[in-house]
Amino acid sequence: MAESPQVMETLAQAPLQMTDSANVHLHVLPGEWLGLIGASGAGKSTMLRLLARLLAPFGGVVRLDGRLVQAGDTLEAAQAMGLIPCGLAATGLTVWETAAVARAGSRGCRLGSEDRQAVNWALERAGVAPLADRLAEPLLGAARQRLFVALALLHSPRVLLLDDPTIALDAREQLALLQLLADFKRTEQLAVVTVFDDLNLAARFCERLLLLRDGRPVAGGTPAQVLTAPLLEQVMGVEFYRLETPFGLQVFPVRILSE
């Protein structure tokens, strides 16, 4: 079935799109935050890696700004999409040097003035400029996550991809990091895709959610449309209590449903 003109116009504005062989469409617009949610093993991280072309799908395509992203374009995709890394190698480099190496990428050349400005800008925007002279590898918690954000910003991406960035952070650090990302999304008009295990954080910060099970989308839409008791019970096997609060929709697990 042909897409409607309104849908085609929306897709034309989306910097990141994915279509698979089963005719599943995913698109993220500038200034929009899409949360990938589901039970453990639902395929959330795998879908993120497919978007980044770190994994090759059996069928389907990923497009960035309308251009087909091939599996061999890993470095280019990671830069253009602002893929947030999951760890740091023990290189003995400082925070500033780590960002400088990431900026240079595969060029392996000395940084010019524009590159240095980009490094300083990214560290400042992510809030880790005061840590520039500290070793990067020992950083923990919020400081490490903010460094990861800075690394993703080095090439002025249009898309940010994050895999559960709030893991191992306390409540204050979680809110501070997600608010930082929300500010980037708004001011830089970034399209953001994030894996969330915390449904309430996803509901608070994301405009749209995609609920996955066994690697396939079950439901997509606004948090109010996706975080319904029947859908969550079907996918999670848990009874949820849903509550509208002054801070948005919240859901609470009540009991495990019998097999």
From TrEMBL:
Keywords (A to Z) from UniProt: ATP-binding, Nucleotide-binding
Pfam families, sorted: ABC_tran
PROSITE patterns per record: ABC_TRANSPORTER_2
SMART domains: AAA (SM00382)
Gene3D superfamilies reported in the protein's UniProt record: P-loop containing nucleotide triphosphate hydrolases (3.40.50.300)
Keyword check for Thylakoid: no
Protein name (Swiss-Prot/TrEMBL): ABC transporter ATP-binding protein
Source species: Gloeobacter morelensis MG652769
Domain ABC transporter residue range list: 2-239
